[in-house]
UniProtKB/TrEMBL annotation:
Pfam families: SBP_bac_3 (PF00497). This is Transporter substrate-binding domain-containing protein. The lineage of its organism: Bacteria, Pseudomonadati, Thermodesulfobacteriota, Desulfobacteria, Desulfobacterales. It comes from Candidatus Desulfatibia vada. Residues 32-232 form the Solute-binding protein family 3/N-terminal domain. It comes from the Bacteria. SUPFAM superfamilies: Periplasmic binding protein-like II.
Length: 263
């Protein structure tokens, strides 16, 4: 009888453990190499696997257009979105800390001979940015803002004089799609961008956020995150991120948004 009870308990514990460790977390992001590649690899996806994988979760990663990836988290078709800009949303909650940071730049053709005088140079100009990034909220001065589908399209419009400046993260300026055009443009730093992951505003989403907030700091402090950034040749971004986290201090708190402009 005792032997049977032991067997039942062991089987029960094993089944319970298997249930936990078999749980799958679906992570999504837009295609943004080398952070998020079309095949489900990339630095941001590896960060997600480092956060959850060591706890026994299975992590599946897929890429979609930015707005669709966000929508999938909102309707709970996906659990986590990486590479997200922090916005007001009743359907989403955000990680306490950014998992990436980058410079915001203004891009313009070299042959326009623009005399740069800081951010005021952008006043009353035609500005464009990648669809879904929401840079329009950045500027408190008059301007004409528009969205484009690809960065290559934006560069071509700049060369044709249809827009004056493109606003982007510096990593966007380095994407392969604009390799053949990049040397025809100047860039100016105008601020920085903090990039977060988000979760659905549900019981499950809140649980996954709690795990992320704890484990993300752990992989930063142990150096595991640094090795991932180094593997993907993103040490510039890693230095920007850790500088931000260091300035926040040990009692780090969430920032109010994703965009900060230089004054």
């Amino acid at each position: 009888m005792i032997q049977k009870l032991i067997i039942i308990v062991v089987i029960g514990v094993f089944a319970f453990g298997s249930n936990i460790y078999a749980e799958t977390i679906n992570v999504v992001g837009e295609i943004f190499p080398p952070m998020t590649n079309e095949d489900g690899t990339g630095q941001q996806f590896e960060i997600a696997k480092a956060v959850y994988g060591t706890l026994g979760y299975k992590v599946k990663c897929k890429t979609y257009p930015y707005k669709r990836a966000r929508y999938y988290v909102e309707i709970e078709k996906a659990d986590v979105m990486v590479g997200m800009l922090k916005t007001d949303s009743e359907k989403l909650i955000f990680a306490q800390f950014p998992h990436d940071a980058d410079n915001i730049i203004a891009i313009y053709p070299k042959n326009k001979n623009i005399r740069w005088n800081g951010i005021s140079t952008l006043k009353n100009k035609k500005l464009t940015w990648a669809r879904g990034l929401g840079f329009d909220s950045l500027f408190d001065f008059d301007h004409q803002g528009s969205e484009i589908n690809t960065r290559r399209q934006a560069f071509q419009k700049l060369l044709l004089g249809r827009d004056d400046f493109m606003i982007d993260a510096y990593s966007g300026f380095l994407l392969k799609e604009v390799d053949s055009l990049r040397n025809r443009f100047e860039t100016r730093q105008i601020g920085f961008i903090l990039i977060y992951c988000c979760f659905s505003n549900t019981k499950r989403g809140k649980r996954l956020k709690k795990i992320w907030d704890k484990e993300f700091l752990e992989i930063i402090e142990t150096g595991k995150a640094e090795s991932i950034y180094k593997k993907w040749k993103l040490m510039r971004e890693y230095r920007i991120l850790t500088e931000y986290l260091d300035k926040a201090g040990k009692n780090k708190r969430a920032s109010d948004g994703s965009f900060y402009l230089y004054k």
